[in-house]
Amino acid sequence: MSADKPAGKKPAKSTNPPRLASKGGAGGRPAVATGAKSKHRSNRAWIDRHVNDPYVQAAARHGYRSRAAYKLAEIDQKDRLLRPGITVVDLGAAPGSWTQVVVERLRIGAGPAGGGRPSSRVLALDILPMDPIPGVEIIQGDFREEAVAARLAAALQGAQVDLVLSDMAPNLSGIGAADAARSGHLWELALEFSLAHCKPDGALLIKVFQGSGYSQFVERLKRRFVRVAVRKPPSSRQESAETYLLAQGRKADAGN
């Protein structure tokens, strides 16, 4: 559900109509919305940037479902979160690029785990449908619904999780306060799930947006985890407000 993923998470169109020229165009042609040309130019600029984006091109060559794959890959390059034999839950997984990186680095499908090491396990959840990935258990549903969260918990069959990934983001309305509240609610749900299901030395990697509620959520993480770090991978566009928080080592007295 990342902004870079084709998962239906584009900001909602403004309900305010574009300003119209006060008079008709030359030769009696209908007046044209003054915002139309700039919007067209903006769309064209976005398409040009997207097509020429080196991460988009690399994702196409590699077979990743979106450029967002490189955000997780770059963070993992630094923090070494993905190790064969662990259990990973990927929240907001569609279209599946993060899950693809997880499968690669956990070497799922590369043969049985050696040295008595347990097999890796990956569970992916999203409100949107997601094409299958071999070795991944996919659950479709809205994580905000208790019944869906219960399905995910039941799928774990009592096993604890090594790593929770959350790339969840709400559909944006364009109303700042409402969007901040929707985002913050998803952050809290991911945190609650992690506290309930992660191993004591487990980790949560979560996408957040700098702005309203951000600093409070960072403090909330610090009260519940031993280590909290901010990550802004090179593939995350610098003009984007998105950033990633990595929380590791649940504190013994951390509750829900």
Helix/strand layout:
Blueprint: H1 34-52, H2 54-62, H3 69-79, E1 87-91, H4 97-105, E2 121-126, E3 136-140, H5 146-156, E4 161-166, H6 176-197, E5 198-209, H7 214-224, E6 225-231, E7 242-250
Parallel strand pairs: 1-2, 1-4, 2-3, 4-5
Antiparallel strand pairs: 5-7, 6-7
Helix pairs in contact: 3-4, 6-7
Q: How would you characterize the overall build of this protein?
A:
With 256 residues, the chain is an alpha/beta fold. The chain folds into two domains: 32-62; 66-111 and 118-250, Vaccinia Virus protein VP39 (Rossmann fold, 3-Layer(aba) Sandwich). Helix content is 36%, strand content 20%. The chain has seven helices and seven strands, in the order αααβαββαβαβαββ. The protein has a seven-stranded mixed β-sheet with strand order 3-2-1-4-5-7-6, with helices on both faces. Strand 1, helix 4 (97-105) and strand 2 (121-126) form a beta-alpha-beta unit. The longest helix has 22 residues, at 176-197. It is globular, with a radius of gyration of 21 Å. The two termini are 24 Å apart. Residues 2-37 have low confidence and may be disordered.
Essential attributes:
256 residues; alpha/beta; Rossmann fold; 7-stranded mixed sheet; 7 helices; 7 strands; 36% helix; globular; disordered N terminus
TL;DR of this structure?
This protein is an alpha/beta fold.
How are helices and strands ordered from N to C?
HHHEHEEHEHEHEE
Number of domains: 2
Order of adjacent strands in the largest pleated sheet: 3-2-1-4-5-7-6
Largest sheet: 7 strands, mixed
CATH structural architecture of the largest domain? 3-Layer(aba) Sandwich
User: For the terminal residues, how far apart are their CA atoms?
Assistant: 24 Å
| CATH topology term of the largest domain | Rossmann fold
Number of E-state strands: 7
Structural class: alpha/beta
CATH class of the largest domain: Alpha Beta
Shape assignment: globular
Helix count, per DSSP?
A: 7
